[in-house]
Amino acid sequence: xxxxxxxxxxxxxxxxxxxxxxxxxxxxxxxxxxxxxxxxxxxxxxxxxxxxxxxxxxxxxxxxxxxxxxxxxxxxxxxxxxxxxxxxxxxxxxxxxxxxxxxxxxxxxxxxxxxxxxxxxxxxxxxxxxxxxxxxxxxxxxxxxxxxxxxxxxxxxxxxxxxxxxxxxxxxxxxxxxxxxxxxxxxxxxxxxxxxxxxxxxxxxxxxxxxxxxxxx
Length: 217
Prior knowledge:
With 217 residues, the protein is of the alpha/beta class. It has helices at residues 21-24, 38-52, 65-78, 101-107, 109-116, 129-145, 159-170; strands spanning 11-16, 58-62, 82-85, 152-157, 188-194, 197-205.
C-alpha cells in the first residue's frame, strides 16, 4: 500500500534536524533529547529560507528539542504553526544511546553486523525499524491526507525515522530500507504523489528540488 488517494499532486518534504554535539561526536542519539549546536541553528535557518520557497501548507515535527528548534525556523519564515508528535521521534535504541560508533561496534559487534545486513534487530534492546515505521508513517499519511490538492507537507524528524517512513510510504520491503542511505544534518528528501502513489523525487537534498524533465508522468 503506497497509502494515498492517487492523482492529487501532493508533496511530502522529510527534513532532518540540524547539527547537535552528539552528531559531531558520532554518538548514537536515538530518543535522547539533545539540543542543536549554534551551527545547527544556522543550518536550520538557511534551510528554512530554501524550504519556504516551496510554499508549504503544513509543518509537523518530532517533539525532541533538536527537531522542535529546526521546525521553529521554518515556522518563523512561513508563519505556519508546527504540530509536534512523539511518534516522529528517532528510534529508541536502548543501550546504544550515548555510545560512539566505535563503542557500538566494539561492544555489540554481532548485533551491529546483523543490523547492517538488513536483519530485524532491536539495537541496544530498543525498537525494530518496522516499529518506528508503524508509529511514524501513519502520522505522516494523516497529515498528507489533510493537504489541499497540490499541497506540500514538511515533516521535521530524524535520520532513522525519516528513512523508515520513506521506505514504508514507498511500499519497500524493510530489508531494502537501508539502501536509501542517510540524510545529512538539515538536508531533506521529497516524495511526490504520482498516479500509483508516492515516489521519491529527491533524497538527501540541500538545495531546492527541480522537476524531472521528460519523466513519464
